[in-house]
Task: inverse folding
């Protein structure tokens, strides 16, 4: 048996139900932790407020994505249909006054680019795709998809301490407090 | 975040808007609306050529006022129809969030049956001669050839334009027109009256349950069809038929998009004002404004989508009998209005409403909703008023007059009269019952809304 030094991921604590998890989350938030998360089998209304999560930056990405799509469409339609190879259809002029014909392209590309930005921006912000999560090392954490409510505070957090954090979790009603080690190689 | 609303926060007997604060407004709007209604209707119906001296007796003035009246009435019809639509949608979709503002929707929708008072003039040939000239042509042709079918009679008419009308007699004939007009108000009026009544009865029910809710939901499935059909055919018969040679199957949807948007703006304004007066305190939160703002955003886009789709197909195909509507509205200064609608009715509101926090900001939403109503004003103006010049103006060198100078004053006058009548009826409904369904089983769910 070789002894390996393993990185500590953080503390995992179980809570009885959604309401306890909610109240505990408020206390962890007020204690000033930043790198921590709640885990529950289903979405809990208002938990993001209890956790003090600010609204996502994603909408700004999407706005930029949409504007990019819009400008791409204008450039694409105008350069090809007016600049490079003027196409006269139904006696319509081949100039900027043909712009209604370009609207569907503008509309579709705005939506396409926005949609892609939502998908890839979301995956990027969530750090997906990933093969493993350190919490999967915990046996009890398997119940999170069934009936388990958990809070995990990461060791990366500036306020983390081996004793203090454990005491805090116990104080706010956490049970089965476990120090989770990252077992990924 | 406010505290969690419990049944202790809900007034047992409801939240009643008292006369005291509003008696002044009610008196003024009732007086102006009532007197204006009587004078306006009398003038339109009996103001025949020569009945008055000077300008007042001229057909140009009389006809201009007929268009102004149609414009004003149609503007408020769309808003009350939108109120019906939102009421039925709330019941049908079984949505929990809207229970707090449901009574406002019902009150707005219930203005619709009373709007019949303002529609009286449209039933008289004296007004129809300006607005729907084809009705006169039709009657004259039938009178001239009593032994022929209406379509054959119109084919024999000296005016070749009537041949287009002859092909459409299955829809555009006076009896069917009157029949449809006679069905608009009673059918939809019954539904909105019944559904509002079910809701109000629940307020005093000692054992409030889901019985009335289910009844309203069942009724709403039929009422939703009624509102769609009424709105569509009202738009066809009263606005699209201003020019019988033109047709667009999208016109009803186009009118609907504007009506849903502007009625939502009225609902938001009402909720904001009532909250400011100290009502709806525990049940309407910024979350409700957020959802209603999202509806505004959605219908801003939908309006643009539908109105562009209507324009786009006609513009591309470029078929003579389809283009007339847009030719007229793209001529000279009307083109400015058409372009302004693109940027001001769609572009600006679209960008302004993108952010979530502005929808929760009551100051911003107050300004925005008033702005939307101004845009709806211009939108309805753009539908109806360009037809006035060719109808009542002079034709010189085969060029119809596009703009009757000074007639916009008549538009504002008619608008003010109908607006006063509309506000008066709306206020009466608001004061006649609790402002929110206080014994609805889902009022707490709605009050604690989080989205």
Result:
């Amino acid at each position: 048996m070789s002894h390996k030094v393993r990185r500590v991921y953080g503390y995992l604590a179980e809570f009885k139900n959604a309401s306890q998890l909610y109240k505990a989350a408020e206390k962890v938030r007020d204690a000033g932790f930043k790198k921590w998360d709640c885990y529950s089998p289903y979405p809990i209304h208002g938990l993001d407020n209890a956790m003090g999560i600010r609204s996502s930056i994603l909408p700004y990405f999407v706005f930029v994505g949409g504007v990019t799509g819009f400008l791409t469409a204008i450039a694409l339609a105008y350069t090809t249909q007016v600049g490079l190879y003027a196409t006269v259809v139904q006696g319509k002029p081949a100039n900027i006054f043909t712009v209604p014909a370009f609207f569907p392209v503008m509309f579709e590309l705005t939506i396409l680019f926005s949609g892609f930005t939502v998908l890839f921006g979301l995956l990027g912000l969530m750090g997906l795709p990933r093969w493993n999560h350190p919490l999967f090392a915990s046996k009890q954490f398997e119940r999170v998809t069934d009936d388990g409510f958990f809070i995990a505070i990461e060791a990366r957090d500036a306020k983390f301490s081996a004793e203090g954090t454990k005491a805090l979790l116990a104080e706010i009603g956490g049970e089965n407090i476990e120090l989770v080690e990252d077992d990924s190689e | 975040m406010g505290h969690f609303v419990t049944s202790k926060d809900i007034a047992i007997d409801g939240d009643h808007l008292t006369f005291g604060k509003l008696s002044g407004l009610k008196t003024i709007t009732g007086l102006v609306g009532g007197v204006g209604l009587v004078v306006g209707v009398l003038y339109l119906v009996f103001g025949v050529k020569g009945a008055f001296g000077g300008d007042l007796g001229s057909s140009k003035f009389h006809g201009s006022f007929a268009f102004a009246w149609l414009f004003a009435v149609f503007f408020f019809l769309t808003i009350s129809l939108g109120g019906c639509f939102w009421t039925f949608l709330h019941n049908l979709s079984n949505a929990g969030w809207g229970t707090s503002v449901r009574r406002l929707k019902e009150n707005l929708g219930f203005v619709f049956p009373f709007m019949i008072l303002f529609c009286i003039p449209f039933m008289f040939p004296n007004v129809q001669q300006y607005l729907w000239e084809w009705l006169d042509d039709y009657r004259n042709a039938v009178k001239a050839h009593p032994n022929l079918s209406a379509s054959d009679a119109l084919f024999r008419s000296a005016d070749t334009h009537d041949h287009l009308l002859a092909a459409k007699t299955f829809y555009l004939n006076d009896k069917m027109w009157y029949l449809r007009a006679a069905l608009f108000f009673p059918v939809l009026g019954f539904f909105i009256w019944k559904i509002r009544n079910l809701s109000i009865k629940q307020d005093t029910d000692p054992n409030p349950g889901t019985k009335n809710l289910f009844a309203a939901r069942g009724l709403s499935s039929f009422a939703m069809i009624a509102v769609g059909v009424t709105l569509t055919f009202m738009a066809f018969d009263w606005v699209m038929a201003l020019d019988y040679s033109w047709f667009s199957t999208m016109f009803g949807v186009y009118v609907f998009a504007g009506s849903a948007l502007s009625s939502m703006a009225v609902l938001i304004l009402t909720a904001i004002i009532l909250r400011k007066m100290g009502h709806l305190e525990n049940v309407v939160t910024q979350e409700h404004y957020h959802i209603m703002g999202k509806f505004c955003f959605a219908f801003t886009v939908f309006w643009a989508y539908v109105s562009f789709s209507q324009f786009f197909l006609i513009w591309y195909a470029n078929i003579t009998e389809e283009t007339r509507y847009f030719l007229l509205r793209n001529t000279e200064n009307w083109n400015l209005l058409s372009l302004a609608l693109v940027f001001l009715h769609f572009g600006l509101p679209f960008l302004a409403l993108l952010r979530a926090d502005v929808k929760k900001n009551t100051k911003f939403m107050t300004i925005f909703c008033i702005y939307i109503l101004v845009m709806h004003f211009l939108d309805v103006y753009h539908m109806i008023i360009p037809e006035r010049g060719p109808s009542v103006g002079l034709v010189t060198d085969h060029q119809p007059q596009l703009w009757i100078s000074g007639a916009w004053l008549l538009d504002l006058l008619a608008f003010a009269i109908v607006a006063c009548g509309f506000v008066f009826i709306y206020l009466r409904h608001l004061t006649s019952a609790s402002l929110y369904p206080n014994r609805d089983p889902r009022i707490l769910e709605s009050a604690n809304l989080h989205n």
